[in-house]
Amino acid sequence: MTHTRTYAALLRGINVGGNKKVPMAELRTVMEGLGHDAVRTYLQSGNAVFRSDRTDPVALARELEAAIEAHFGFRVPCLVVDGAHLRAVVAACPFPAAELQGKQLHATFLSEQPAEDRFAGIDAAAFLPEEFRLGDKVIYLYAPDGLGRSKLAEALARPSLLKGIDATTRNWNTVLKLVDLTTS
User: Fold this and answer.
1) Where do the DSSP E strands lie in the chain?
2) Looking at the whole model, is its pTM more than 0.70?
3) Is there a contact between 45 and 10 (Cβ–Cβ < 8 Å)?
4) Distance of CA 103 to CAs 35, 71, 90, 124, 145, Å?
5) How far is Cα 177 from Cα 7, in angstroms, rounded to an integer?
6) Which residues of the chain register pLDDT less than 50?
């Protein structure tokens, strides 16, 4: 007997400034073509929730990347996380999420766990009041003025820092909505 799991697919860098246009209805069709059930999308920024009896999120992500490239003609890095991981990310948040606006708190989801020493070169005090914490395949970022103005987010996104790791960021409101969608 197979057990169906609910996953969130997080696509990086689509529908931003007219680049890498991926209409959500077409994305749902592509995902259904891969055999996924109950495919739903959230916002236009590359969030999809689906059910699958497959248990390897990395294999699901690679398969989705290949299908998107075949359908749309460009590569889109994808991360696939299950609902349990999303709930764990929320539960482990080191910042007082309930006291903050959703645009002030972000989670950068990572394809693999980086060693903490990768972040040793970041002078945390230089970025205050912005702060970050490393979690389980996630970087929590507190940016009181929002992500668009965050110098710390810029520093954390340096290619040398995340070399070999796919990463994509969501604001806290989106994280909470994905928890809700993967739970219901």
Assistant:
1) 5-11, 37-42, 47-52, 78-82, 105-110, 131-135, 138-142, 167-171
2) yes
3) no
4) 34, 32, 15, 20, 8
5) 13
6) 1
